[in-house]
Amino acid sequence: APERTLVLVKPDGVRRGLSGEILRRIEAKGYTLTAVELKNATPELLAQHYAEHEGKPFYAPLVEFMLSGPVLAVVAEGQGVIPGFRSLAGATDPTVAAPGTIRGDLGRDWGLKVQQNLVHGSDSPESAEREIALWFPTF
Ligand code: CMP
């Protein structure tokens, strides 16, 4: 089966009109967009998506942020796309993410309680399978 990852353009990215720029970078790298859908998250979906972060100090602000507006959910496909997209995204903290990356070029610290860092990308094949099933139940 082809390698697939789940990418989310988070509410900050959608709000700032960066969805096209982020999709452009994924395509320019050579990956294929297999599914793209604008969605409103729900507390139930986020509880599953972020199960590993439950109990951390940034969990509640993270969920609140992810509910603050629509999210662009994307399935991207290609050899090496899981680590490849995380490399395109850059480090979690946009202040120090390397220039050339999505977070490094387009993100910064907005002084809020959670990193508003524009994108999410699955971190392993197991996460990708689980997250694609959550965001695209009919995929
Ligand atoms: P992501 O890696 O997609 O999933 C977890 C998210 O939690 C992360 O992006 C950030 O948005 C946020 N996050 C992770 N670590 C911190 C932190 N130390 N402080 C605030 N937010 C964080």
Principal-axes geometry comes out as globular
Give the amount of beta strand, in percent.
15-25%
**Main CATH class:** Alpha Beta
Distance between the termini: 14 Å
Number of domains: 1
Written as H for each helix and E for each strand, in order along the chain, the element string is EHHEHHEHHEH
Question: Count the helices. How many?
Answer: 7
Bound molecules: adenosine-3',5'-cyclic-monophosphate
Going by helix content, strand content and strand pairing, the class is alpha+beta
Mean pLDDT: 98
Protein name: Nucleoside diphosphate kinase
Binding site for ATP: 10, 58, 86, 92, 103, 117
Main location: cytoplasm
Subunit structure: Homotetramer.
List keywords for this structure.
alpha+beta, 40% helix, Alpha-Beta Plaits, four-stranded antiparallel β-sheet, magnesium, single chain, binds adenosine-3',5'-cyclic-monophosphate, 139 residues, phosphoprotein, 7 helices
Lay out the secondary structure.
Blueprint: E1 4-9, H1 11-15, H2 19-29, E2 32-39, H3 43-49, H4 59-66, E3 71-77, H5 81-89, H6 102-106, E4 119-121, H7 125-135
Antiparallel strand pairs: 1-3, 1-4, 2-3
GO molecular function: kinase activity
Family: Belongs to the NDK family.
Protein name: Nucleoside diphosphate kinase
